[in-house]
Amino acid sequence: MADAAAFFQSCAQAGALLGSLCAILVVPAAVALMVRYAKPAILAMDADRCWQAPFAAVGSMLPGASFLSIAAYGLTVGTSSNCLQFVTGRIIFAALLLLTVFALARATGIATLRSREAASIRNFSFAAGERLKAAAPRNCEAREISDANPFCAVLGVIHPIIIVSTGALARLDDDQLNAALCHEAAHIQRYDHVLGALAAFFSDLLPFGTADLLKLYWDAREFAADQRAVAHTEMESLAGAIIAMAKGPLLPVAALDGGSVTSRLQRLLAPPENSASTHRRMIAGGALSIATLIALLPIVSGTLGFLSCHSQ
Ligand SMILES: [Zn+2]
Predict the structure, then answer these.
(1) Ligand 1 center from residue 51 Cα (angstroms)
(2) 222 C-alpha vs ligand 1 centroid, how far in Å?
């Protein structure tokens, strides 16, 4: 008891919470709360999917990114912390270390499984035939995979490729195939393959309160890719591709690679009356910027020696 009392007294005197590994108990929660505050502003951007998607992705990442940065910083400099003079301090440090290792191992394990699944699909794919090769957008590698289920998807993070199933090739006419490939190319141009992987990893790292923003990102990025695709293809061809891959007995809910078929068709054929608003972007962007500043607070305060409990 005396040791615990001395430990907490030392903590209180140092005013050290933000500059230590203990910040991991407070700061990610504060970041998550700020992201909650930003969420209504991000949701209100439903006429501005091009910006809504990255905002939702960043919002879903921030608590996990905050957790990781504090863990990396706290474990790097934490061994010089004054609190380790106390048994209570050593127990708390060990508990935080275990929590961090568990969270990292869990998120890394899930990311590795995803990566292996993608590698397996890639290994089963083969070079594009003449028809797919002719339709593939410039600067995008497209490959085929033998599968009766109709799907097109972007695979890979560092070197993304477009995978098209033989089932999709059988169902799509040339215009629809071109539209589907424009949609996938739009994902690559918008770096959705990178953003999606990061959002999934950080949400797995700290899976509290970010699932809805992650889901919003997955939906919004489909609308944004559709919107970008119709700048290069006919809207009717894209709608036809979505329908062609969704109907039939082979796959009950197929689409190009995600999103609700009905809502995507509605959005394509009847765009919302209200338009993108700079005002809404500023509110959502401002709230996310504040959340980012909160996330950076421990590192800044620790680096500057401000509110730090480490031995000087
Ligand atoms: Zn898509």
Answers:
(1) 16
(2) 5
Q: Which residues pair with 162 in a beta bridge?
A: 142, 154
Residue 270 reports pLDDT greater than 90: no
What is the distance between the alpha carbons of residues 259 and 238, in angstroms, rounded to a whole number? 14
- Number of other CB atoms surrounding residue 261 within 10 Å: 17
Q: Which pTM does this prediction carry?
A: 0.83
pLDDT, averaged across the chain: 84
Residue 90 has pLDDT above 50, yes or no: yes
pLDDT tens digit string along 221-246?
Answer: 999 999 899 888 888 899 889 888 87
| Spacing, Cα 85 to ligand 1 middle (Å) | 54
Closest among 223, 216, 168 to 196, alpha carbons compared: 216
How far apart, in whole angstroms, are the C-alpha atoms of residue 202 and residue 67? 9
Helices (H), 173-277: 174-189, 192-205, 211-229, 235-246, 261-269
What tokens appear for 178 in the block? 């071109």
Nearest to 167 by CA among 240, 256, 250: 250
Contact criterion met (CB below 8 Å) for 216 and 61: no
Task: Give the model's pLDDT for residue 7.
Answer: 73
